[in-house]
Amino acid sequence: MKKIFSLFGIIALIAACSSNDEGGNSNDGYDRTALLTHWANNIIIPSYTDYQAKLQTLVSSTNTFTTNPTEANLQTVRTSWLEAYKAFQYVSQYSFGKAEEIYFKERNNTYPTDATGINANITSGSYDLSLVSQVSKQGLPAVDYVLNGIGNTDSEIVALYTGTNAAKYKKYLTDLVAALKSNNDTVLADWNGSYKASYIANNGTSVSSSVSITVNNYIKNFEKDVRAGKLGIPAGVFSGGTLYPEKVEAYYKKDVSKVLLNTAVQAAQDFFNGKNFANSTTGPSLKAYLDFLNTVRNGQNLSTTINDQFASAFTKINDLSANLSSQITTSNSKMLTAYDALQQNVVYIKLDMMQALKITVDYVDNDGD
Predict the structure, then answer these.
(1) What value does the mean pLDDT take over residues 271-280?
(2) How distant is the alpha carbon of residue 303 from its chain centre?
(3) Is 297 helix (H, G, I), strand (E, B) or coil?
(4) Class of domain 27-203
(5) Which residues does 195 contact at the CB level (< 8 Å), separation at least 6?
(6) How many angstroms separate the CA atoms of 325 and 321, rounded?
(7) Same fold, 27-203 and 204-369
(8) 53, 81, 119, 132: which has the fewest C-beta neighbours closer than 10 Å?
(9) How far apart are the first and last CA of the chain?
(10) Confidence bin at 366 (pLDDT 50/70/90)
(11) CA distance linking residue 265 with residue 65, whole number of Å
């Protein structure tokens, strides 16, 4: 009988450990429920809410421009587009839940945009932006093209919105902006609905826990979309030195690609430090988590090393010209230096931090660290 009770005791212990690994608080003592609550309430939802507001402004300015296509109204809609693009850099990090389900990131920011496909869509007037095949013909890069890339001067661009095919150009711009707003509304409604509670409740340590999913998406975005997408790919890092200046973000506007890069890196640092989206208050965070675990690298807190590297990256980025496409053709070495600065933080965050937090990297990496 004692053996039976002992066996039951062992089974119960194993079950308890398994349950804790799947859904309970982390056994390292850090309050993951508080962490997830802060992320949801003070960072993620406010970021999507801000993007929603910026997109609504873009919708309104687009309506004004399509009703009265003037150069002044074109400038206004461009300003709204840029503000929305900057706001997107903050939500790009959270490509999970409903965002993953509807391909939110891809529909918002696949670039280079397919200019030939966009022109074909405008000419035919027949397209369905909900199709995966249309991902490269929509989003903020597509809006960039139809506001900045379809003519050499503002007067030439406005002429297309007042000429023979004006109705088709107006419809496409309107549809692009409406799709952006609709997709963000869908994701934000899910967060404000039942998803937030389930996200916070999933506070365990398994690979399917909310902390693991959030941190993996955060690092993947920083590595793949910021480091590689905004710098590495156009600067030739992954193509044996072949340069692709046409593959920078916001290629047709020319002078805002550096602004978007800076915004994305700031968003990454803010999330690492647990900074509220709307103010400078900080809460539970990856930084606080590392400090709680007394994580040290080369005699210094790892969190300090990571923040110091963010500062170094900003210094290298600020040395770039506003037009990253032009920077590539005139002095690509500065692009590579900025890339290296971001790459160093990939090492600190993806390797050192993940190891300290005992979180497994769940995405495929083909370019090394």
Answers:
(1) 97
(2) 22
(3) strand
(4) mainly alpha
(5) 97, 98
(6) 9
(7) yes
(8) 132
(9) 56
(10) low
(11) 32
Copy the structure tokens of residue 240: 């044996």
From CA 66, how far away is CA 158, in angstroms rounded?
10
Q: Cα–Cα distance between 230 and 248 in angstroms, integer?
A: 6
Whole-angstrom distance, CA of residue 319 vs CA of residue 334? 7
∠ Cα 280 286 288 (to 5°): 75
pLDDT digits (tens, 9 = 90+) for 289-302: 999 999 999 999 99
- pLDDT digit string (tens) for 31-64? 999 999 999 999 999 999 999 999 999 999 999 9
Q: Tell me, what's the pLDDT at 367? A: 59
Do the bridges between strand 300-301 and strand 296-297 make them parallel or antiparallel, or are there none, so unpaired?
antiparallel
CATH class, 204-369 region:
mainly alpha
The angle at the Cα of 111, spanning 353 to 50, to the nearest 5 degrees, equals 65
* Whole-angstrom distance, CA of residue 52 vs CA of residue 285: 25
- C-alpha closest to that of 225 among 105, 139, 96, 67: 105
- Give the Cα separation of 350 and 314 in Å (integer): 19
The two three-digit tokens of residue 267, written as one number: 């968003």
* Number of residues assigned to the chain: 369
Q: Which of 307, 295, 226 is nearest to 263 (CA)?
A: 226
Can you give the residue ranges of every domain in the chain?
Answer: 27-203, 204-369
Alpha-helical segments (H) within 221-366: 257-272, 286-292, 302-318, 324-346, 354-357
